[in-house]
Automatic annotation (TrEMBL):
GO cellular component term of the entry, any: cytosol
Family affiliation: Belongs to the LysR transcriptional regulatory family.
UniProt keyword annotation of Flavoprotein present: no
GO molecular function: DNA binding; DNA-binding transcription factor activity
SUPFAM superfamilies on file: Periplasmic binding protein-like II (SSF53850), Winged helix' DNA-binding domain (SSF46785)
Lineage: Bacteria, Pseudomonadati, Pseudomonadota, Alphaproteobacteria, Hyphomicrobiales
Function description: Transcriptional regulator of the ttuABCDE tartrate utilization operon.
Protein name per UniProt: HTH-type transcriptional regulator TtuA
Length: 295
């Protein structure tokens, strides 16, 4: 019954406020545009436009149709944009940098998802520490980077917020209040590290002082120190899942309040917005369905 082209014409007329202006915008003759609107009115069974002395205005019933027309044409526009993006991605190499915890937890799923939804894309994964990922994206050495981002960095888009865990070589229970976790002999990254910034900010908001006994710049070294019984730390689940499942480290979900680290997808200079959105949505989907995200 409804014709997409005529719905687009109706939206253009409403936006322009006159038949003549809409005809110029659409690149068609005004009599032809008027004919299409007349046919649309015949099909729906009621006038959709008031013809005024100067311009046109949607009728009350026409406003209902116009609302649907806007929604339909926008959905079609989005679908066309995504299809163009997929076509653009054909036979293209995409270089994606992952922080180590993400490479461990999600790389197989990311590879499978890209292969299924973008079969002609050649995906090149680079595992890199957070500071190295930021450097690679700045230098144009990767197209996109999954990373933790500090306040001074430009944030393109959030992928997911991961809740944090107290980690120790000793039993901790399934959960632990932040106040109790703060009293552990904590080994944390330096203050300029985005994870540390998230932990410090949460503690400050809660009015809690952290018992930081040592700072180490390196997640693997922190985990080895914790495993040796030197202290405890605070990490995301996917940063410690392997060691926890192997019985090497214990992890307790921090509650009262729950605290998070934010994982973002950074976009390189040469990546178009459609490609970026496709990968952002794919990564969001992978992160939110993996059991390692929410144990």
């Amino acid at each position: 019954m409804l014709d997409l082209r005529r719905l687009r014409y109706l939206v253009a007329i409403a936006d322009c406020g006159s038949m003549s202006a809409a005809a110029r915008q659409l690149g068609i003759a005004q009599p032809a545009l008027s004919h299409h609107i007349t046919e649309l009115e015949r099909l729906v069974g009621f006038p959709v436009l008031h013809r005024l002395a100067r311009g046109v205005k949607a009728t009350e019933k026409g406003e209902v149709l116009l609302s649907h027309a806007r929604e339909i044409t926008e959905k079609v526009r989005q679908a066309e944009a995504e299809i163009r993006a997929i076509a653009y991605l054909d036979e293209r190499v995409i270089r994606l940098s992952l922080i180590p915890s993400w490479a461990t937890a999600f790389a197989p799923s990311i590879i499978s998802e890209v292969a299924a939804s973008m079969p002609k894309v050649s995906l090149r994964l680079i595992e890199a520490r957070n500071d190295e990922s930021l450097r690679l994206i700045r230098l144009g050495k990767v197209d996109m980077a999954v990373a933790l981002v500090g306040a001074e960095e430009k944030v393109d888009d959030l992928i997911v917020k991961e809740s944090l865990f107290a980690v120790s070589s000793r039993p901790l229970g399934r959960s632990m209040p932040l106040e109790a976790a703060a009293k552990l002999n904590l080994i944390l990254p330096p203050r300029d590290n985005p994870l540390r910034a998230s932990i410090d900010e949460a503690a400050t908001r809660a009015g809690i002082n952290l018992n930081v006994t040592m700072e180490i710049d390196g997640q693997d070294t922190i985990k080895r120190a914790v495993g040796a019984g030197i202290g405890a730390t605070i990490l995301s689940w996917n940063s410690v899942q392997q060691e926890h499942e192997a019985g090497q480290l214990q992890a307790a979900h921090i509650v009262d309040p729950v605290i998070y680290r934010s994982i973002h997808l950074l976009k390189g200079r040469e990546v178009d917005e459609r490609t970026f959105r496709l990968f952002r949505d794919l990564l969001r989907s992978v992160a939110r369905r993996e059991p390692s995200f929410n144990p």
